[in-house]
């Protein structure tokens, strides 16, 4: 059983590194970074405690929000999805990404205390 | 069909419970008003107010000859005001004729034009009328109507009404009569109780005077509803001391108008003394007067219905009062009412002009109470030894004292009866008070009646020891009976009771119950700040959380992400600068600013960044399409 799991994973990794364009890999690296940051914040909260709760929430929501926005960006700039996003060019997607981030950071900074 | 009749009558009665006057001029008020108006007058205007005011109140003006001389000496025949005051005042006292020259008459007639003020027209016309000179009524109406349009204030229109009342009945007074309704609409309703002009008491009182004066003159009922009339009465007569002669005069005029006009005469019904009847005072006496406390002798007063407040049973129906020396009397005790409160609905009839002639009155029937069958006994708790009951008669005291220790209960039973009817009573206050003469302690209990109205009181010595602080000794026992409907409250030292408590834990001296001394101070505990984790831990985790960024940079380097495509066009530079500025603003927001300031700066920087970024991305897109 574990054999098949390992082979699936290695096959997946191979496919990924070969067929994914570089641009998307850059975004994927960013996604991984956000994920780790969020996970570590959560770990701190579990281990040490929720004080100050508003700061934890703001940091965590920031990670979650950034992750979601980056995923949206990735979907929109993926050339394989071009058919779905005819009216949205990659530049437009990036601009949306920046604007949404501005709003997110405004809220996060307000809440961080 | 009879049922329907009763139903409609009860509906009518229910609707008829309108407002009743809260204020009127009582006899002392009238006297005060009179004395204010009787002051020595210094000029014609004050003479006018005094003489006419007193006449309206029905009081005599002293020394008519002297007044007449004064008026004649002060008269200035060229001034309309002067002639007006003199003419009106002289009319009110007998045997005083003011000589009028042709010049004066011409001045007065010339004032009747739409170029004179309303006051001038009013005074001129009134003077002409009082002096018996002819007045061209239709011309006056024309002048008044024109002036009403120019002078729209309350006092002016009131003067117009007054003027119209002096004109011939053949003239077209309808237009001016309508002004009464317009003015009524301008009155301010305060809480449904008062109705007055914001211009004040004088304006309101003069309006009432003028409205009834004109209405009587043309014999048309003024458009004032009953409740409005009562509200006006409340407004005018609530003030009991008056600032000026003019104000006093206006109140006197209004009082006269409201007690004697053809349409609305408000009635004031009050009990003479407290509204209480008892065996010694069996008649209910009512004063039924007009707003000036003049008795309405021609009225018929009857009780439409009276019911007991407690049981709601009707005790009187359509019972008439008899007039006895200016006071309306009814012998209520003859119906043998039980003691308590009764709600009377009284109607004053006999004159269709009467307003607020249905009044509700709460009447109290008091009686005297007697204590009967007072039995005292000491009962053993296990009931093995028979009880010995001692009968005590009011107001004597029991000859021997009673002893009760922790094995016994002290018991008391008695009845409270109405002296006159023998009916059992349950007064509001029935207390048993035990007073320790040595220590000054006092403990009060409530005696409760059972279903047969027999009062019982039991003192369980063991159970009640805390009230007594377990102090044994001789206690005087008092019975206290009181109620609003009892004329003879009772405080009766019935007996002495020796109480023996187990374990005398009490202190030697009794502390008076410290109810009103300062209490111990409460120290406020401020909210403790939450425990923070040690700095080492937070620092460690800060570093830990920052570490994925390092990983990101490494990954990006490995992927070959670079900025080799960086074009140094102005929009690109501006965009990056702007973007950096926005991130910097976020930091400053966190440390210094509030949301409003941040949004302001964000709008500026963001706007610039957006435009630059738009440009930059467009350029990139073009480049992409071309390649």
TrEMBL record, chain A:
<comment type="subunit">
    <text>Component of the oligosaccharyltransferase (OST) complex.</text>
</comment>
<comment type="similarity">
    <text>Belongs to the DAD/OST2 family.</text>
</comment>
<feature type="transmembrane region" description="Helical">
    <location>
        <begin position="30"/>
        <end position="49"/>
    </location>
</feature>
<keyword id="KW-0256">Endoplasmic reticulum</keyword>
<protein>
    <recommendedName>
        <fullName>Dolichyl-diphosphooligosaccharide--protein glycosyltransferase subunit DAD1</fullName>
    </recommendedName>
</protein>
<keyword id="KW-1133">Transmembrane helix</keyword>
<feature type="transmembrane region" description="Helical">
    <location>
        <begin position="93"/>
        <end position="112"/>
    </location>
</feature>
<feature type="transmembrane region" description="Helical">
    <location>
        <begin position="55"/>
        <end position="73"/>
    </location>
</feature>
<dbReference type="Pfam" id="PF02109">
    <property type="entry name" value="DAD"/>
</dbReference>
<dbReference type="GO" id="GO:0006487">
    <property type="term" value="P:protein N-linked glycosylation"/>
</dbReference>
<dbReference type="GO" id="GO:0008250">
    <property type="term" value="C:oligosaccharyltransferase complex"/>
</dbReference>
<keyword id="KW-0812">Transmembrane</keyword>
<keyword id="KW-0472">Membrane</keyword>
<comment type="pathway">
    <text>Protein modification; protein glycosylation.</text>
</comment>
<comment type="function">
    <text>Subunit of the oligosaccharyl transferase (OST) complex that catalyzes the initial transfer of a defined glycan (Glc(3)Man(9)GlcNAc(2) in eukaryotes) from the lipid carrier dolichol-pyrophosphate to an asparagine residue within an Asn-X-Ser/Thr consensus motif in nascent polypeptide chains, the first step in protein N-glycosylation. N-glycosylation occurs cotranslationally and the complex associates with the Sec61 complex at the channel-forming translocon complex that mediates protein translocation across the endoplasmic reticulum (ER). All subunits are required for a maximal enzyme activity.</text>
</comment>
<dbReference type="InterPro" id="IPR003038">
    <property type="entry name" value="DAD/Ost2"/>
</dbReference>
TrEMBL record, chain B:
<feature type="transmembrane region" description="Helical">
    <location>
        <begin position="598"/>
        <end position="617"/>
    </location>
</feature>
<keyword id="KW-0732">Signal</keyword>
<dbReference type="Pfam" id="PF23861">
    <property type="entry name" value="Ribophorin_II_2nd"/>
</dbReference>
<dbReference type="InterPro" id="IPR056790">
    <property type="entry name" value="Ribophorin_II_C"/>
</dbReference>
<feature type="domain" description="Ribophorin II second">
    <location>
        <begin position="267"/>
        <end position="365"/>
    </location>
</feature>
<dbReference type="InterPro" id="IPR055373">
    <property type="entry name" value="Ribophorin_II_N"/>
</dbReference>
<feature type="transmembrane region" description="Helical">
    <location>
        <begin position="541"/>
        <end position="561"/>
    </location>
</feature>
<dbReference type="Pfam" id="PF25147">
    <property type="entry name" value="Ribophorin_II_C"/>
</dbReference>
<feature type="transmembrane region" description="Helical">
    <location>
        <begin position="573"/>
        <end position="592"/>
    </location>
</feature>
<feature type="domain" description="Ribophorin II N-terminal">
    <location>
        <begin position="27"/>
        <end position="259"/>
    </location>
</feature>
<dbReference type="InterPro" id="IPR008814">
    <property type="entry name" value="Swp1"/>
</dbReference>
<feature type="signal peptide">
    <location>
        <begin position="1"/>
        <end position="18"/>
    </location>
</feature>
<dbReference type="InterPro" id="IPR055375">
    <property type="entry name" value="Ribophorin_II_2nd"/>
</dbReference>
<comment type="function">
    <text>Subunit of the oligosaccharyl transferase (OST) complex that catalyzes the initial transfer of a defined glycan (Glc(3)Man(9)GlcNAc(2) in eukaryotes) from the lipid carrier dolichol-pyrophosphate to an asparagine residue within an Asn-X-Ser/Thr consensus motif in nascent polypeptide chains, the first step in protein N-glycosylation. N-glycosylation occurs cotranslationally and the complex associates with the Sec61 complex at the channel-forming translocon complex that mediates protein translocation across the endoplasmic reticulum (ER). All subunits are required for a maximal enzyme activity.</text>
</comment>
<keyword id="KW-0472">Membrane</keyword>
<comment type="subunit">
    <text>Component of the oligosaccharyltransferase (OST) complex. OST exists in two different complex forms which contain common core subunits RPN1, RPN2, OST48, OST4, DAD1 and TMEM258, either STT3A or STT3B as catalytic subunits, and form-specific accessory subunits. STT3A complex assembly occurs through the formation of 3 subcomplexes. Subcomplex 1 contains RPN1 and TMEM258, subcomplex 2 contains the STT3A-specific subunits STT3A, DC2/OSTC, and KCP2 as well as the core subunit OST4, and subcomplex 3 contains RPN2, DAD1, and OST48.</text>
</comment>
<comment type="pathway">
    <text>Protein modification; protein glycosylation.</text>
</comment>
<comment type="similarity">
    <text>Belongs to the SWP1 family.</text>
</comment>
<dbReference type="Pfam" id="PF23860">
    <property type="entry name" value="Ribophorin_II_3rd"/>
</dbReference>
<dbReference type="GO" id="GO:0006487">
    <property type="term" value="P:protein N-linked glycosylation"/>
</dbReference>
<keyword id="KW-0256">Endoplasmic reticulum</keyword>
<keyword id="KW-1133">Transmembrane helix</keyword>
């Amino acid at each position: 059983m574990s054999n098949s799991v390992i082979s699936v994973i290695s096959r997946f990794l191979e496919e990924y590194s070969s067929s994914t364009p570089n641009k998307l890999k850059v975004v994927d690296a960013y996604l991984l970074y956000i994920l780790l940051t969020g996970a570590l914040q959560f770990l701190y909260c579990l281990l040490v405690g929720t004080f100050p709760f508003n700061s934890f929430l703001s940091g965590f929501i920031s990670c979650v929000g950034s992750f979601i926005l980056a995923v949206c960006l990735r979907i929109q700039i993926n050339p394989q999805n071009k058919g779905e996003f005819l009216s949205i060019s990659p530049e437009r997607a990036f601009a949306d990404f920046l604007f949404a981030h501005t709003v997110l950071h405004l809220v996060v900074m307000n809440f961080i205390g | 069909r009879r049922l329907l009749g009763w139903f409609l009558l009860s509906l009518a009665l229910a609707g008829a419970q309108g407002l009743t006057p809260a204020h009127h001029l009582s006899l002392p008020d009238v006297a005060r008003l009179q004395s204010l108006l009787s002051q020595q007058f210094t000029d014609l205007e004050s003479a006018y107010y005094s003489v006419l005011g007193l006449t309206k109140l029905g009081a005599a003006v002293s020394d008519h000859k002297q007044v007449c001389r004064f008026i004649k000496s002060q008269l200035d025949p060229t001034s309309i005001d002067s002639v007006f005051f003199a003419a009106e005042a002289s009319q009110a006292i007998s045997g005083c004729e003011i000589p009028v020259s042709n010049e004066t008459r011409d001045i007065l007639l010339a004032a009747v034009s739409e170029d004179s003020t309303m006051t001038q027209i009013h005074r001129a016309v009134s003077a002409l009328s009082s002096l018996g000179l002819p007045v061209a009524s239709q011309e006056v109406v024309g002048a008044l109507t024109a002036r009403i349009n120019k002078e729209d204030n309350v006092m002016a229109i009131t003067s117009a009404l007054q003027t119209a009342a002096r004109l011939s009945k053949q003239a077209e007074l309808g237009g001016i009569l309508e002004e009464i309704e317009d003015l009524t609409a301008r009155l301010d309703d305060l809480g449904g109780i008062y109705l007055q002009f914001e211009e004040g008491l004088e304006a309101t009182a003069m309006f009432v005077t003028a409205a009834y004066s004109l209405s009587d003159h043309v014999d048309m009922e003024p458009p004032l509803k009953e409740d409005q009339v009562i509200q006006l009465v409340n407004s005018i007569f609530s003030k009991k001391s008056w600032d000026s002669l003019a104000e006093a005069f206006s109140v006197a005029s209004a009082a006269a108008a409201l007690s004697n006009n053809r349409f609305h005469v408000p009635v004031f019904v009050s009990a003479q003394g407290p509204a209480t009847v008892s065996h010694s005072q069996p008649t209910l006496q009512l004063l039924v007067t007009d707003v000036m406390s003049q008795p309405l002798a021609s009225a018929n007063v009857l009780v439409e219905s009276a019911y007991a407040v407690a049981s709601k049973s009707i005790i009187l129906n359509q019972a008439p009062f008899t007039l006895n020396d200016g006071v309306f009397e009814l012998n209520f005790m003859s119906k043998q009412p039980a003691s308590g409160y009764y709600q009377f609905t009284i109607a004053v009839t006999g004159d269709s002009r009467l307003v607020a002639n249905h009044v509700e009155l709460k009447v109290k029937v008091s009686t005297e109470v007697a204590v009967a069958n007072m039995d005292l006994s000491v009962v053993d708790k296990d009931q093995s030894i028979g009880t010995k009951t001692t009968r005590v008669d009011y107001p004597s005291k029991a000859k021997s004292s009673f002893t009760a220790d922790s094995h016994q209960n002290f018991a008391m039973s008695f009845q409270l009866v109405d002296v006159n009817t023998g009916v059992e009573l349950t007064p509001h206050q029935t207390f048993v008070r035990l007073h320790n003469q040595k220590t000054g302690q006092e403990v009060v209990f409530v005696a409760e009646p059972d279903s047969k109205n027999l009062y019982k009181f039991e003192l369980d010595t063991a159970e009640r020891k805390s009230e007594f602080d377990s102090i044994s000794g001789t206690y005087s026992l008092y019975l206290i009976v009181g109620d609003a409907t009892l004329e003879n409250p009772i405080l009766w030292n019935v007996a002495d009771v020796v109480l023996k408590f187990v374990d005398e834990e009490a202190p030697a001296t009794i502390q008076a119950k410290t109810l009103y001394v300062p209490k111990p101070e409460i120290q406020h505990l401020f909210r403790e700040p939450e425990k923070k984790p040690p700095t080492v831990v937070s620092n460690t985790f800060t570093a830990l959380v920052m570490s994925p960024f390092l990983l990101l940079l490494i990954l990006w380097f490995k992927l070959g992400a670079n900025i080799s495509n960086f074009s140094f066009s102005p929009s690109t530079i501006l965009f990056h600068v702007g973007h950096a500025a926005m991130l910097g603003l976020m930091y400053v927001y966190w440390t210094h600013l509030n949301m409003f300031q941040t949004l302001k700066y964000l709008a500026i920087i963001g706007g610039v960044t957006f435009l630059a970024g738009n440009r930059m991305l467009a350029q990139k897109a073009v480049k992409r399409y071309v390649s």
